[in-house]
Amino acid sequence: MDRTQLQGTGYAFGTSALWGATGIWVALLTVLPVSSTLLFRFVTAAALLVPALLLSGGIRKPTRDGYGAGALLAAYYLFATVGFYFSNVVSVSLLVSTSPFFVMLIRVCRREALRGREIAGGVLAFTGVLVLITGSAAATTGRLPALGNFCGLGAALTMALYSLVGPRLQGQGWTVVLISCLLGALVSLPFALPTLTLPEWPQWGLFVGLALFSTLAPGYLYPLACQRITPTAATVIRLSTPFFTALFAWLILGQTLGLHHLLGAPLMLAGVYLTLPRASSSD
After folding, report:
1. Quick check: pTM over 0.85?
2. Separation in Å, CA 116 to CA 119, 120, 128
């Protein structure tokens, strides 16, 4: 492994760790109404991103694909935040990681041919999802795990759709992130107003952490990883995100893995791995 590949691998694992912390930030903010958590997540990210883009001249006029990608990314953040808010953070992190499985389902809808390993991977991933959702419903009390798990799958689907648009964005990455933050804030505002709760100073710190380390920084690092190693390799490394979530949940939230995690996670991650496209010789 040369220096460039080593850097790319480091960026990919760093991105996975930062994404893995997303659920922890949200779990620490559940003292606020979910609508307020959504609104201030988007507002904080936009407030940090706009000055940086203005100073660097990084704002570009978005194309039609850019607007569509921004809407999909906003939906991803909405689904993921609600999922982490209402369900076990490790369960939701695992469900979000199934986005390659949804890419495969989209290919099926397009009547594209699948290989045997992809079909086997789809069956394994679907079985793992069933085990995880069934176990989460029994293990999580006093919250809405069914809603949280549904939103986790919604986040995986929207990320799958976003990944299909991604190759057409032509360097509009930061502009797309800004569109997603502004659109997410607009969508969240009507729901937040009736029960709007202003964060206290420690909670503002959590929002800054969520925006800076688990929203903006991964958006910068992941494309760098894909440039230095193949996108397929970066996607495989991204499957480590739930393991970082489990580590942070244990260290910070005191949460331990349940039997449904131990049974469902290997099935799900192995299945998702099998649905990934194989790297071509030109990657």
Report:
1. yes
2. 5, 6, 18
User: What residue has token string 């933050």?
Assistant: 181
Which of left, alpha, beta for 277 (phi over 0: left; psi -120 to 50: alpha)? beta
- Write the CB contacts of 138 (distance below 8 Å, at least 6 apart in sequence): 260
Tell me the residue length of the chain. Answer: 283
Within 29-115, residue ranges assigned H as helices are 34-56, 64-86, 89-96, 99-109
* Cβ atoms of residues 114 and 101 within 8 Å: no
Note down pLDDT in tens along the chain; length 283 residues: 678 888 989 999 999 999 999 999 999 999 999 999 999 999 999 999 999 888 877 777 888 888 999 999 999 999 999 999 999 999 999 999 998 889 889 988 988 888 888 899 999 999 999 888 888 766 655 567 889 999 999 999 998 898 888 777 777 888 889 999 999 999 999 999 999 999 999 999 999 999 999 999 988 888 788 778 877 678 888 889 999 999 999 999 998 888 888 999 999 999 898 888 665 544 4
Tokens of 264: 């469902």
The residue among 77, 79, 43, 69 whose CA lies nearest residue 175 is: 69
99 vs 30, 42, 49, 178, 188, CA distance in Å?
Answer: 26, 22, 26, 22, 24
Question: Residues 160, 100: contact at Cβ < 8 Å?
Answer: yes
